[in-house]
Design a protein that fits this description.
By secondary structure, this protein is α/β, with parallel strands linked by helices. The protein has 19 helices and 19 strands. A hairpin with a 2-residue loop joins strand 5 and strand 6. It is globular, with a radius of gyration of 25 Å. The chain starts with a strand and ends in a 26-residue tail after the last helix.
Length: 641
């Protein structure tokens, strides 16, 4: 199945081609021996001695002069010459499109806005109208290529960054497949049809045209149309089954259900309207009690299940803006077209737009002339009813299994860390390693996303934060609590932060190991009869089970990001460093007896306090760590390994 399927069915901003971003270099292919040596160093302390000895011999055979590794490396170098980005297709497949898990919690992150306080339904709809107006304003900037180009911050600051991901915000759709999904991208057409947003309300879907007679609707018009939708949705006699539940299912199951759905022309027309929309706006019913930060996050991550707002979603669409009657608002992101920093930039633009818009609602002159929004109709056979029942049951399992907590560390923030001449991101990453060691007495393969947008069509690579230096520090801090002097712990802490910073620089400059090993593996699938032993080895398989999946998502406005774990016995740890505090969203699964989100959050607190206390000791003499400035390199790439 193709990775990118173009469909000239509606107007959309076209992403700049590689030729339009001539200043960006191609992603390098790291030297083979460098990657193999780094791989062994990353895994040496994470597996048993016996297992490591076997793996070391396998790696040596793979990388031997004139051997298979060198042949595959040559293939990758040839691929680099022929493509804009040699790893992009491999990475997209491996990270997202081949993944068969359900999107809620497992793949789709959420951004939660500051709690709103709506006095009535009109307040909710005014907010939604302003949000849609902001979306259309931002999309117009994209369509005219007026978005200012991003540039790197922190290490290697000032370098231009690839802007391609922005053009997938409103023009992408993830089509379910039986074995692999397809990322569909709309392309421009000469005569565009009216653009539309899909509004979800009471588990029903409505087409809201946002351009009528070549005129973009005002906020007053949008408010009027949303009021009509609320009234239409309240008519229980007209309601269809909650079809949106199907998109919350495992991908192969949803693909199977969709195959049945499209046999009917009514369903085909409804699917077509959803798949071509600018975005979804989900008008949610109140979730229940006074919502905490954690409750708001859960509302965005999975909607509370089919009994609440879990069916008031369409997870295949890139952006779903949630506006709850109880003031719970945010956006759910289908992650395959773009990374977290792009989502944050877009969201902050929308919130700034809404803050600037007039508080009073301007009445539209043409209210009576606006055609009513259209309800999407569905024909549900008994087979589809069976799929819906199964999807509802599985979504409930996801809801019950997620163990989630939001914790704000208030003792200090990134300003204190900068005064220690440390990267705040590296500092927090070492704290997460210390927290994990406190809880589990070991380190585990850790994923921290690092942006490689300095390169043409770059997405992310992985910073492997469970370094040997991190292990030396955390074991001294925990196991040597009474025996290792504080000054020695401080030296080990500085070493761990330095190693983390150095790996970060390696990753953002295209020299990390994960994309390289992925490329070698996928080239091997294409040219070898059997997958090489190296990629079947237990150490390699262990290296890709990311028990700790982490991401820094800094924001300049009142909002935060969250996501679920990526393995059953793992944690998701998303953090937002602010000047005087650090916000953590910790997730795990109740089904694993070894994990606990609240206990891990407590361990994070203890670790950060201990590291602060160590920093108050006399500083050890050590070479200055490279890139001690705050790093934006790792900022917010949505996580999922």
């Amino acid at each position: 199945m193709p990775i990118l399927e173009k469909a000239s069915r509606k107007t959309a901003a076209k992403a700049p081609s590689s030729e339009e971003e001539p200043g960006l270099p191609k992603l390098p292919v790291p030297p083979l021996q460098q990657t193999l040596a780094t791989y062994l160093r990353c895994m040496r302390h994470l597996v048993s001695d016996e297992q490591f000895q076997r793996s070391q011999a396998i790696v040596q055979r793979f990388g031997a002069p004139g051997g298979l590794g060198e042949a595959l490396q040559r293939k990758l170098l040839e691929r680099r010459e022929k493509t804009a980005n040699w790893v992009a297709e491999y990475w997209l497949n491996d990270m997202y499109l081949n993944n068969r898990l359900a999107l809620p919690v497992n793949s789709s992150p959420a951004v939660i806005f500051g709690r709103q306080h709506f006095q009535d339904t009109s307040g909710q709809l005014r907010f939604a109208a302003s949000l849609i107006s902001g979306v259309l304003s931002y999309k117009a900037l994209l369509d005219s290529h007026s978005i200012p180009a991003d540039s790197a911050k922190g290490q290697l600051s000032g370098q231009p960054l690839c802007m391609k991901q922005y053009y997938g915000l409103f023009s992408s759709y993830r089509l379910p497949g039986h074995t692999q999904d397809t990322l569909v991208a709309q392309s421009s057409s000469v005569m565009p049809e009216p653009e539309h947003v899909i509004v979800a309300c009471c588990n029903q879907f409505f087409v809201l045209d946002v351009v009528i007679n070549f005129r973009r609707l005002s906020e007053g018009d949008l408010f009027t149309q949303l009021r009509k939708i609320i009234k239409m949705a309240s008519n229980e006699d007209e309601r269809s089954p909650p079809i949106g539940l199907l998109t919350s299912d495992e991908r192969s199951q949803w693909a199977k259900a969709r195959t049945v759905l499209v046999k009917d022309s009514t369903n085909r027309d409804s699917l077509d309207m959803i798949e071509r929309c600018v975005c979804l706006v989900c008008l949610d019913a109140p979730g229940g009690d006074e919502p905490s930060d954690a409750a708001m996050a859960l509302q965005l991550l999975h909607g509370g299940g089919c009994g609440k707002n879990g069916a008031n979603r369409w997870y295949d669409k890139s952006l779903q803006f949630v506006v709850g009657r109880d003031g719970v608002c945010g956006v759910v992101c289908e992650h395959s077209p773009f990374d977290g920093i792009v989502l944050v930039q877009c969201t902050e633009h929308l919130l700034r737009y809404m803050m600037k818009s007039p508080k009073r609602l301007v009445r539209a002159d043409s209210v009576s002339e606006l055609p009513a929004p259209r309800r999407l109709r569905w024909k549900c056979s008994p087979e589809i009813q069976g799929h819906l029942a199964s999807s509802a049951e599985k979504l409930q399992r996801i809801v019950k299994s997620l163990d989630f907590t939001v914790y704000r560390f208030n003792h200090y923030g990134k300003e204190f860390i900068k005064k220690q001449k440390c990267s705040p991101d590296a500092f927090v990453q070492v704290a997460l390693q210390l927290a994990f060691y406190r809880r589990h007495g070991r380190l585990a393969p850790t994923y921290e996303s690092a942006s490689i947008r300095r390169f043409r069509e770059g997405r992310v690579d992985n910073i492997r934060s469970a370094t040997p230096e991190a292990l030396a520090f955390v074991s001294a801090a925990v196991d040597g609590r009474a025996t290792v002097p504080g000054c020695e712990k401080l030296r080990l802490l500085k070493d761990a932060i330095r190693a983390q910073t150095e790996y970060t620089v390696m990753a953002i400059t295209g020299m990390a190991i994960d994309n390289h090993l992925l490329g070698l593996r996928e080239v091997a699938r294409e040219v070898c009869e059997e997958l090489p032993e190296m990629f079947r080895d237990e150490t390699y398989l262990t290296s890709n089970r990311f028990v700790l999946s982490t991401s820094q998502v800094p924001t300049s406005m009142e909002m935060f990001c969250c996501y679920g774990p990526v393995v059953p016995n793992g944690y998701g740890a998303c953090y937002n460093p602010q000047p005087d505090s650090i916000l953590f969203c910790i997730s795990s699964f109740h089904g694993c007896q070894d994990t606990s989100s609240s206990k891990f959050a407590k361990a994070v607190e203890e670790s950060l306090v201990e590291m602060r206390d160590l920093c108050s000791l006399p500083q050890p003499a050590a070479p200055k760590a490279p890139g001690a400035k705050e790093s934006a390199a790792t900022s917010s790439q949505g996580h999922k390994p």
